[in-house]
Amino acid sequence: MERKGPVDLSTTKVIFDTFFVSATKVFFLVLKPLRGVILGRLLGPAVYGIMNIPVPYVQISLILSNIGFTAAVAKLMPEHLQAGRRDLSRMIFRASVFLTVALALLWTALLIVFAPRIVRDIAHRPDALGPMVVYSLIIPFMAVNTIYASILLAVQRGKLRAKITAIHGVLNVALPIVCTLI
């Protein structure tokens, strides 16, 4: 098996890759409020409010799905790659992805199980059950996206991470609008 050289952690490369990722994120931060305005106009205030009931629960679940794994990957993988220990780097990668997916699936299942109680007793909107269940299904995808984004940054694949972030941003902005129009 061919051994590649150590990861290039030169300042220029890190700044260049970080620029692409940051530019992509800033672009979609500007587009997200437009999505809210368009959806608010298309759906009306009552239905738009119902669609936003699950958002905080999904965001909390995403945080709990990724409790420090991205930070560990971003710190430990480059260290082991620089030291020539690809085996340790690979083990960190596999363990982080497995635990992230397992926790995301756990939180998704719990949110789906408790969705009727949340929408009935906390939100007082039983008609929000459908959006709550549908939004819960996005948790594993988002958790995997987050862990892979940190891995790509850790191994200095900033342009690839920027492309993944761009695809994710386009889906995040366009998909709700397209679903509303259908």
UniProtKB/TrEMBL annotation:
Broad class of where this protein is predominantly found: membrane
Keywords: Cell membrane, Membrane, Transmembrane, Transmembrane helix
Organism: Eiseniibacteriota bacterium
Subcellular location: Cell membrane
Isomerase among keywords: no
InterPro entries: Poly_Biosynth_Transport, Polysacc_synth
Membrane topology classification: Multi-pass membrane protein
Highest taxon of the lineage: Bacteria
Protein name: Polysaccharide biosynthesis protein
Coiled coil ranges: none
Parts of the chain that traverse the membrane: 12-31, 51-74, 95-114, 134-155
GO cellular component term, pick one: plasma membrane
Matches recorded under Pfam families: Polysacc_synt
